[in-house]
């Protein structure tokens, strides 16, 4: 039987892997968007925008998974829906309205409007990515490094 210390170390390692994946997904999503032409404050090609929004949103969920694992939730019991994440994180982050607000905005802008509805408004998509970045950085306690232009 594993000791509590061994389980804690394994959870921290697994959580760190999830945080690394979150940053990788976030950066990949930003890379997808950087070559999309913008005209009149709107992305001109919906397909890469949809893909970037989906990848960026999943990156944020990876950070949520890493956070929950670091708090002792078993990998097999991680939430499988936005409502599940909201329920668990609302309890755990009850005093942090900034994170909860950012989570909600990223869900709406990236997942609903960007991914499902094919929204192409630049300011909406950028706000979604800013909120996803905030959630990732806050939950992982690591800054996402700036990349070359």
Task: Outline the structure in words.
The protein is mainly alpha-helical and 149 residues long. Helices cover 70% and strands 3% of the residues. The protein has 5 helices and 2 strands; from the N terminus they run H-E-E-H-H-H-H. The protein has helices spanning 4-33, 46-70, 82-92, 97-116, 122-140, and strands at residues 38-39, 42-43. The protein has a two-stranded antiparallel sheet. The longest helix has 30 residues, at 4-33. It is globular, with a radius of gyration of 16 Å. The model has no long low-confidence stretch (mean pLDDT 91).
* Elements, N to C (H/E): HEEHHHH
Taken from the alpha-carbon principal axes, the silhouette is: globular
Number of helices: 5
Question: For the CA atoms, what is the radius of gyration?
Answer: 16 Å
């Amino acid at each position: 039987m594993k000791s509590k210390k061994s389980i804690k170390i394994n959870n921290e390692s697994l959580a760190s892997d999830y945080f690394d994946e979150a940053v990788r997904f976030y950066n990949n999503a930003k890379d997808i968007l950087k070559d999309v032409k913008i005209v009149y404050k709107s992305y001109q090609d919906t397909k890469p925008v949809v893909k970037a929004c989906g990848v960026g949103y999943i990156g944020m969920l990876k950070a949520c998974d890493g956070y929950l694992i670091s708090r002792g939730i078993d990998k097999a019991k991680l939430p499988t829906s936005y409502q599940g994440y909201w329920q668990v994180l609302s309890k755990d982050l009850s005093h942090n309205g900034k994170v909860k607000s950012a989570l909600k905005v990223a869900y709406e802008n990236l997942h609903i409007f960007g991914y499902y509805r094919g929204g192409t408004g630049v300011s909406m998509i950028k706000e979604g990515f800013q909120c996803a970045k905030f959630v990732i950085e806050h939950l992982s306690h690591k800054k996402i490094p700036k990349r070359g232009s």
